[in-house]
Specification:
This protein is α/β, with parallel strands linked by helices. The chain has a single domain, classed as Rossmann fold (3-Layer(aba) Sandwich), CATH 3.40.50.150. It is built from 11 helices and 7 strands. Strands 3-2-1-4-5-7-6 form a 7-stranded mixed β-sheet, sandwiched between helices. α3 links the parallel β1 and β2. The protein is globular, with a radius of gyration of 18 Å.
Length: 267
């Protein structure tokens, strides 16, 4: 029996990635096998969410990634083309109005000009097509963002140019893009974010030499060689994961707080 790919090993013990997939599955029930869907990511994505989307949601999927060094490993894993994107000129080899759905997941916080980038990407979306944007919250008054600052886990550590986007900022972006808002959803509240912060802080501060994590945004393993260097650590993490999972369920008590998923329609 072949061992599970390292990408799925990490995904299956992740909190936020599984929450994002669950939310996407709930929102994309309208898709069918003839629908053309584009999934855009930027670093921190090993291809595992792509793999799960293809496996669990019927559509004709296309992939794009802004971190070019991630693409070879993603393509090997997915056995499909992953299109490279530039932040300033996100050109793709498709006709205008080609896609029924475009997902921009954890990308806009990395982009110098999110409005310009989104506008150029939207030319590939059909009129009436859906756009889903996933970003971290940009509310700098949240307790965990304050804790991140104390720990010096600044946005640039994650490869971000900003903390994220508030509900108001996303609504403004939507208006500027002439999009009709369908709904705003939330995921990954305080307890899950606290766990993720603990894990990221440990990886960066304690195991950074093994990861060569000095490069901005390179916290978790991005290749099989990086994963192999922390295999022993991951085995330990698997042992304590059930306790972390129970802790993360406390988020259900915080249903009134927000992290953002923005579901819109092109007019």
């Amino acid at each position: 029996m072949n061992p599970e790919p390292w990408q799925l090993n990490i995904f299956n013990k992740s909190f936020k990635k599984k929450e994002k997939l669950k939310l996407l599955k709930k929102e994309l029930v309208f898709l069918n096998q003839n629908a053309k869907a584009l999934f855009i990511t930027c670093g921190g994505n090993s291809g595992a969410i792509n793999y799960k989307l293809r496996q669990e949601i019927s559509a004709c999927w296309f992939w794009a990634e802004l971190e070019k060094e991630n693409i070879p490993e993603m393509e090997t894993f997915l056995k499909e083309k992953v299109y490279p994107l530039e932040t300033g000129n996100p050109a793709l080899p498709f006709d205008r109005n080609f896609f029924d759905l475009i997902i921009i997941l954890d990308v806009l916080e990395h982009i110098p000009d999110p409005l310009d980038f989104s506008r150029k990407i939207l030319c590939f979306l059909k009129p009436g097509g859906k756009l889903v944007i996933g970003t971290p919250t940009g509310n700098t008054s949240k307790p965990l963002i304050i804790v991140k600052k104390i720990l010096k886990m600044k946005p640039e550590i994650y490869g971000h140019l900003r903390e994220g986007f508030s509900r108001q900022q996303l609504a403004q972006l939507n208006d500027q893009l002439n999009l009709q808002t369908i709904k705003i959803l939330s995921y990954s509240r305080f307890f899950t974010e606290l766990l993720e912060l603990m894990i990221n802080f440990s990886l960066l501060k304690i195991f950074s030499r093994k990861f060569n994590a000095q490069k901005s945004g390179n916290i978790a393993p991005q290749s099989s060689s990086q994963f192999n260097k922390v295999a022993a650590l991951f085995k330990f993490y698997r042992l304590i994961y059930p306790f972390f999972l129970i802790f993360s369920l406390l988020d259900k008590l915080l249903f009134f707080t927000e992290g953002y998923f923005f579901n819109s329609r092109k007019i």
